[in-house]
């Protein structure tokens, strides 16, 4: 059976750059029709690599893809349908900022059916510290506008902010849950190297919560979401049942195939048992991406063929993020490799893993240490 195929389109422009963001983004509110044209052309190159495989998901990420005009979005979706075809019930996701809520109805009419909204907080002071353009009331209005326009709505919140205590987060998360959306993405603030926040931490101008408080905030997140019926199906993602989970993100976490177009986008195709998993990374700067498409017909440089070891490491690191865990049988079939069984058995004895011959998963208590533990399960 041919595995599902996803399409990721990266729109790199934002109206402003948030100080915690380390994504490939650039400040602009222009329409950038030339970049849309380059992405359309790049999609044609990818069709030659994949063959005719219907898409299970399309995801517009960024950056701020809600800055796209509805006509641009509609054109990109139509091109994808022409090239690959769309599976019945395809998920077409779009990331958006609350201050673009006036465009929501048009973007939904253009074909997006799942909106992921960057709320981040309802607290005005916190939003200002995070560099967001909206305030708390704007966030609330945007959620309601999204729910009116889209059949599926998720929104993001960030916790473990400077000065934030358990009661502060309890209040914010409770308000978020009360909107009744099918999905919440709840991220602990991470200080990424090279960001404005990282520089503030270095100067002592920003002091995020310590590890103990961060762990307590994570535990509170799990408690409140579980009581509300929002299952934690991934370390940072909660959904009201399987049908509400992100189809596109599960491709990443389960080692699926996806196409990556747009500046800085990554793509993955195939597996080591089939001759090597193809890894691509598009040129990061928009002008370099456009030039690459013009000169070579594609936005990425020479594809990399991942070694079996590199592919196994990727699959382990991603697979341990989901609560149903890593499919060891699929890992062995794809790469001929397995987890570090010694490390896994040690963690299982400590109650941090559930381990069977064909699957390994983090226990709820261990998920807060997920990335660290996954690294230790990668075999030498």
UniProtKB/TrEMBL annotation:
Homology family: Belongs to the anaerobic coproporphyrinogen-III oxidase family. HemW subfamily.
Subcellular location: Cytoplasm
Main function: Probably acts as a heme chaperone, transferring heme to an unknown acceptor. Binds one molecule of heme per monomer, possibly covalently. Binds 1 [4Fe-4S] cluster. The cluster is coordinated with 3 cysteines and an exchangeable S-adenosyl-L-methionine.
Organism superkingdom: Bacteria
Record protein name field: Heme chaperone HemW
Claim: Iron-sulfur is one of the keywords in the record: yes
SMART domains in alphabetical order: Elp3 (SM00729)
Gene this chain is encoded by: hemW
Main location: cytoplasm
Protein keywords: 4Fe-4S, Chaperone, Cytoplasm, Heme, Iron, Iron-sulfur, Metal-binding, S-adenosyl-L-methionine
Domain annotation Radical SAM core: ranges: 1-228
């Amino acid at each position: 059976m041919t595995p599902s195929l996803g399409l990721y389109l990266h729109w790199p422009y934002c109206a402003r750059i948030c100080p915690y963001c380390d994504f490939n983004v650039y400040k602009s509110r222009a329409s950038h029709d030339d970049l849309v044209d380059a992405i359309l052309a790049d999609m044609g190159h990818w069709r030659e690599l994949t063959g005719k495989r219907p898409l299970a998901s399309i995801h517009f990420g960024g950056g701020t893809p809600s800055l796209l005009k509805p006509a641009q979005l509609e054109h990109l979706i139509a091109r994808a349908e022409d090239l690959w075809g769309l599976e019945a019930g395809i998920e077409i996701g779009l990331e958006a900022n609350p201050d673009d809520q006036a465009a929501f109805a048009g973007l939904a009419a253009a074909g997006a059916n799942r909106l992921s909204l960057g709320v981040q907080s309802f607290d005005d002071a916190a939003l200002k510290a995070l560099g967001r353009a909206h305030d708390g009331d704007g966030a609330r209005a945007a959620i309601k506008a999204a729910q009116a326009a889209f059949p599926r709505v998720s929104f993001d919140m960030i916790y473990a902010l400077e000065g934030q205590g358990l009661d502060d987060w309890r209040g914010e998360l409770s308000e978020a849950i009360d909107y009744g959306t099918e999905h919440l993405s709840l991220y602990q603030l991470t200080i990424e190297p090279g960001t404005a926040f990282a520089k503030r931490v270095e100067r002592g101008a920003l002091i995020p919560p310590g590890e103990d408080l961060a762990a307590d905030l994570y535990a509170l997140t799990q408690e409140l979401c579980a009581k509300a019926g929002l299952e934690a199906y991934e370390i940072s993602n909660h959904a009201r049942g399987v049908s509400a989970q992100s189809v596109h993100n599960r491709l990443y976490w389960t080692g699926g195939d996806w196409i990556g177009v747009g500046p800085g986008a990554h793509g993955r195709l195939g597996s080591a048992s089939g001759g090597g998993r193809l890894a691509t990374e598009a040129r990061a700067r928009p002008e370099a991406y456009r030039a690459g498409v013009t000169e070579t017909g594609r936005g990425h440089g020479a594809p990399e063929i991942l070694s079996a070891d590199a592919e196994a490491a990727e699959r382990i690191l991603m697979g341990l993020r989901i609560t149903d865990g890593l499919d060891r049988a699929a890992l062995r079939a794809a790469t001929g490799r397995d987890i570090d069984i010694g490390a896994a058995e040690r963690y299982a004895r400590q109650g941090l893993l559930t381990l069977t011959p064909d699957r390994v998963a983090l226990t709820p208590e261990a998920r807060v240490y997920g990335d660290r533990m996954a690294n230790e399960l990668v075999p030498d």
